[in-house]
Amino acid sequence: MNVSTSDLAGLKVMVIDDSKTIRRTAETLLKKEGCDVMTAVDGFEALAKISDQKPAIIFVDIMMPRLDGYQTCALIKNNPLFRATPVIMLSSKDGLFDKARGRIVGAEQYLTKPFTRDELLGAIHRHVSTTPSR
Predict the structure, then answer these.
(1) Distance, first Cα to last Cα, the chain
(2) From CA 82, how far away is CA 14, in angstroms rounded?
(3) CA 128 → CA 27, 56, 85, distances in Å?
(4) Are the C-beta atoms of residues 128 and 85 closer than 8 Å to each other?
(5) Where in the chain are the domains?
(6) Nearest C-alpha neighbor of 119 from the set 38, 45, 22, 46
(7) SS3 per-residue string spanning the chain
(8) C-alpha span between 38 and 34 (Å, rounded)
(9) Are 111 and 89 in contact (CB under 8 A)?
(10) What is the fold of 9-125?
């Protein structure tokens, strides 16, 4: 269980979820791996932070007030500066329709809540180059 955690040190990760429990859980797991974690309660708050913080990967809940995960993902992917930033959808539903809709708006992956530490880290390793740039 001793996976090298130093490869994620300082990696900027954003978690967008209206559930305080989910935000805290993800934040705790990711900070243990050395990630620099920022959170937002909804898409509006997230969009303001994304342009300032420039996260390397974004986890976004689908069901949120004001701006849902699909709309948030579409807005991120429509911005040329953040088009290449991986977006992972989070949902308590495990439906094919939701997964397909996530792909349509540009999400790289779909995790069903509650997610595990390995799922969270697996998504980061799959979509973010954690090799130090030389």
Answers:
(1) 28
(2) 13
(3) 18, 7, 9
(4) no
(5) 9-125
(6) 22
(7) CCCCCHHHCCCEEEEECCCHHHHHHHHHHHHHCCCEEEEECCHHHHHHHHHHHCCCEEEEECCCCCCCHHHHHHHHHHCCCCCCCCEEEEECCCCHHHHHHHHHCCCCEEEECCCCHHHHHHHHHHHCCCCCCC
(8) 13
(9) yes
(10) Rossmann fold (3.40.50)
- Which tokens in the block code for residue 80? 């040329």
Q: Which residue's structure tokens are 């955690």?
A: 5
Counting every residue written for the chain, the total comes to 134
C-alpha distances out from residue 102 to 79, 90, 130, Å: 17, 10, 24
pLDDT in tens, 32-51: 999 999 999 999 999 999 99
Tell me the per-residue pLDDT of 115-129, one tens digit each, with 9 for 90 and over.
999 999 999 999 997
Q: 80-113: b or e for each residue (b if 16 or more CB lie within 10 Å)?
A: eebeebbbbbbbeeeeeebbebbeebbbbbbbeb
Q: Which two tokens stand for residue 42?
A: 């909804």
